[in-house]
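Subject: Protein entry, chain in single-letter code together with its fold tokens

Area: Proteins and the way their chains fold up in space.

Attached in line: The record itself begins immediately under this heading.
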Amino acid sequence: MVDVMRKLLEQVRGSTTVLLTGPEGPDGDSLGACLALQRLLAVRAPGVRVDVAGLPGHRYAWLPGADRMVPDDAVGAYDGVVVLDGDRKRLCAEVGRAFAGARWTGIVDHHRSTDLDGYDVALFNPAAESTCGMVHGVATAWGIPLDADLATLLYVGVIFDTGGFRYSNTAASTHRLAAELLETGIDHARIMLKVLVERRPAALRLMARMLQEATFHANGHLAMTTCTRAMLREVGASESDLEGVVDMLQHTEGVDLAVVVVERGEARVKLSLRSSGRVDVAALAHALHPGGGGHAKAAGVVLLAPVAEVIARLEAELVPQVAALA
């Protein structure tokens, strides 16, 4: 692992420009990891311009360095592109073109479903609770001490991917890492509130609408709901306001599989999948489309089809699978 970290730094130092990116619609772990690695590279490769792709939603706009992120549609050519907390199959079109045209590519990830083919540098640890936990290891290997800003970014990813230490991927090492981050003096209560708890009024309206329209199948073991672009416009919300909805469905009594269907275009739909453990949603996402994947209990996939067609497919394919679990 240390050799891979050394190779990553060598590749960056041999470049003029490098782009760090997560999947389209990045979450807390991806954003925290990208912004944290950017800070580390500013110390160890100060002559290289390192950008982070994307625009953070309101939940993450306050993160250190988020104001300097490059919108996806403004991404140009880079010598190197590194994907964090995801893989190249989940990049948006603009970033995907930058990835395809880069002289070298890398990945830093912990998802078991990730295909490591196609990268020159692959830092991969499926035993890590978060990609931010892996970036903390990079900081240690490169001899960079923690400060409050770096610790804040890392803590965001750790609590996001462990659900505030509620999920089964939380280990003793996770709590030791959290303790080290807290020792820098970060306001952990505020971070937890901003990332996992706080909602905008529009988000509450959207959540109420989606939960009201949720449907239950297979004797209550499968829960599904949908968010269309029209719904977002009607309540004044954005896709970033969707965080937490799928978890509420999955935490409903009797539910083994929760699915949130998000319309992203005329024929483009994002699925967020959550499982109680009886369904491997990473395998399910990959079965729905080769670009899908994630964790066994939390995964996602983008399908190129109209939302009505996707819902019909899910009802036809998932209901029998979940019913068979009973």
